[in-house]
Each structure stands twice: as structure tokens, then as C-alpha cells.
Amino acid sequence: MPAAASRIRAISVAGDDLAVRVSTDEDPAEDAPILLPSLGEYPVYGDFSYEYMIADKLRTDAYRAAVRALAPGKVVLDIGTGQDALWAVTAANAGAARVYAIEVIPEAADQARRTVEAAGLAGKITILDGLSAEIELPERVDVLVSEIIGAIGGSEGAEYVLDDARRRFLKPGGDSIPHRCVTTVAAVDTSTVLPDGELAFSPLFLPDLEQIFASVGHPFDLRLCLLGLDQAEFLSPRAEVEELRFTAPMAGNGTDRVELPVTKAGRLHGLALGIRLWITGEEDQPIDSLAQQTSWCPIYVPLSLEGIAVARGDRITLELRRSLSDDGVHPDYELTGRILRAGRSTVDISWHSPHHGTTFRGSAPYRLLFPAQD
Ligand SMILES: C[S@@+](CC[C@H](N)C(=O)[O-])C[C@H]1O[C@@H](n2cnc3c(N)ncnc32)[C@H](O)[C@@H]1O
């Protein structure tokens, strides 16, 4: 049962009140674990998430170095340039010949245009409003820059969007920043970060929850992020799934099968999903969101509130399937598997995570987070 440190608040979804369990911590300490909805795959653009992403030095330093190295003398395309046209401006200042920058959020595109004009770069950077898949460019480019990598690598639509961009916009042999992404998965014991099996959203993210459900039209069992998951006990090494190579054809769907050896005894509450991201090329040290503090907040797949007892030598078989959802851009994910325990019963596990599904309160963790009201 949840500890006393949570309470129920209401948000409005389609005119009705929806009960949500939130932590009592209105303003959590910087390093305190926080549960929040996964935001990047929805049209939710809070100042908090933008500032958090911009303040992520691991991300911005790696991108800046890659753009400065590859842009001089080249034609560059920045997909999803954002309100500050960050990589378009970096490319132009590094000596790019021409830069095209596409942004789908009209307000962000307008702001980007003002930023570019104020920087005196309007002659070099062309801001284009809209979705990259619906835009034509007057020429092919040497370098494709984008940052539409999700907490699960492909969850923001990178596979579909960047495959389209490579085919229609990139010169043969051109470069992509980022270069490659894999999603990682590991088993976790969250006793220390979510004591007593307590799952509760940070109240800071209630407006985002409301916006996500409004954008989809109804509540559903959305993906959860856990800031501070790196402080949990990892019961297995991380395995790699969902490999995306941005300079090669990508199918938009796929199945990965991995086996995780349990290397530490504990109570398995769920799985952690993160990314390894190679920004420039294979020789990079990848950014690793399950091992480093980054703005790619790890996804927490809650499987059991009380935890499933596991011992060293047990094994977890997992299959992760991804297929394009009916919006044609964002993938649906489905994870199934078995925990094979020596001398104990086998436990089947499953997690269905469509981009905008209809299942609501489908498992105990989600029933706890969204308590039914009489
Ligand atoms: C994570 S933000 C990155 C902003 C900026 N490039 C940076 O790295 O700081 C992703 C941006 O890409 C935009 N975006 C995502 N997919 C897009 C697409 N297919 N076409 C145009 N813009 C897109 C979003 O609206 C958002 O502004």
C-alpha cells in the first residue's frame, strides 16, 4: 500500500475529473526521485522540460562539438530546430554554406526566425514551418542534424522521421547527427527510490498529464519516467534492443529478443529502459541515460508493486516489439517475457505500451496511480 507521502488530486480530462495519486512533496530536492509522465512523444511543451533539456550539458556539448566538426563549408538541415534554432545557429556560425531548419510548432518556428534575424544569420538560415515529412527542400544536404530521440530511443518518431529525411534530403554518403541509438533494458529493484511500492506522480507534472490526455482525447496507461532511477538497485546488466542507424534504411518496426542474467539478489519491481546515443560516429563514447544523469529521463516499466523475489543465476527472457502506431510516426511498444527462477515458479511479465492506447488502469501499478473514485 502507498505510504503516507502521497495524496489524491484531480485533473480534468474531457470535462470530467480524474483522480491522480501525487507525492506530497511540492518542491522535491534536486536529487530526490520523481515519477513523471514520458513527455517527448506528445505535443506537450512545458518550460520545465525545455529548460531541463537545454541545461543538459552532456547532450548540448556533444551536439555542439559534432555540429562544429561537420558543418564547415557544408549544406546542413536541422530537423526540429526548436525555439532557439540551436543547431542551425551553431552550424551557421561554424561556417556552414547554407542551413535549412524545420520546426513543426508554429510558435517555436516564429521564435526561431526572430532568433536567427537577431543573430544576423537570416541570409544563411532558412526556417521552414511544418513537419519534415511534409516539406520539400530545394536541394539535398551534406549534414542532417536532429534531436528527436526519446527516452526509449525511437519513441518520439525518430525511426520514421529520420528514415524519410535520409531518403529525401541527405546526399549519398552524408552525415547524420546523431549517428546511432540503441535502447537499453535492465531489471531493477526500486525499494530504495520508491519505498513501500509507492507510485505517485510529482505534482509538478499534473498540467503535463492533463495536456497529454487532452491531446489523445482520453486517459490511458501512459509511459512513466523515473528521475533518479539511477539510484535504484540494478539486478542485471543492461542489454541492447531497438538499434537505430540513422544513415542506413530503417524499417519502422522490429522485434528484439534478449536474455538478462540476474546478477544480484533482490526484489524485481520492474524494468528500466534508457538509451545509448552515439552523436558523431562509432568512435564516440555514447551518452548512456541509464548510467549518466541526462535529460533523457529513464523509462520505468512497473511490473510488481511488492517486487518479485529473484536470486543470482535466475534469468529474464524479454521480447520487445515495436510497430508504427496509427498516427504513422510514433511507435507502439510491447514487451513480454519470463522470469526463470531456480527452485521457484516462473513468472510471466508483459507491458503493452501503445503511443496512445485505450487501456486504462490495466495493471496494479496504474490502478494505484489512477485510483477509481466511487
Ligand atoms: C527535443 S526538441 C529539440 C530542440 C532543439 N533541436 C535542441 O536540440 O535543443 C525536438 C523538437 O523537434 C520538433 N519536431 C519533432 N519532430 C519534428 C518533425 N518531424 N518535423 C519538424 N519538427 C519536429 C519538436 O516540435 C521540438 O521542437
**CATH C-level class of the largest domain:** Mainly Beta
Approximate shape = globular
Classify the secondary structure makeup into a structural class.
alpha+beta
Q: Which second-level CATH architecture of the largest domain applies?
A: Distorted Sandwich
Distance between the termini: 19 Å
**CATH H-tier superfamily of the largest domain:** Hnrnp arginine n-methyltransferase1
Please give the oligomerization state of what you see: single chain
Order of helices and strands: EEEHHEHEHEEHEEHEEEEEEEEEEEEH
How many individual helices?
7
CATH topology name of the largest domain, in short, is: Hnrnp arginine n-methyltransferase1
Strand content: 25-35%
Main pleated-sheet profile? 8 strands, antiparallel
Low-confidence stretches: none
Number of domains: 2
- Give a count of the beta strands, DSSP E runs of length 2 or more: 21
Bound molecules: S-adenosylmethionine
Helical content stands at 10-25%
Write down the overall mean pLDDT: 94
Q: In angstroms, what is the radius of gyration?
A: 21 Å
Describe the 3D structure.
With 374 residues, the chain is α+β, with helices and mostly antiparallel strands. Helices cover 19% and strands 34% of the residues. It contains seven helices and 21 strands. The protein has helices at residues 47-54, 57-70, 86-93, 106-118, 158-169, 206-216, 364-369, and strands at 6-13, 16-23, 34-37, 75-79, 98-103, 125-129, 141-146, 170-177, 180-189, 224-227, 233-234, 239-245, 254-261, 266-268, 270-278, 287-288, 299-302, 308-310, 315-324, 331-340, 347-353. The strands form five sheets. Strands 3, 9, 10, 11, 12, 15, 16 and 17 form an eight-stranded antiparallel sheet that branches. A five-stranded parallel sheet has the order 6-5-4-7-8, sandwiched between helices. It is globular, with a radius of gyration of 21 Å. The protein binds S-adenosylmethionine. The site of S-adenosylmethionine has 17 residues, from α3 and β5.
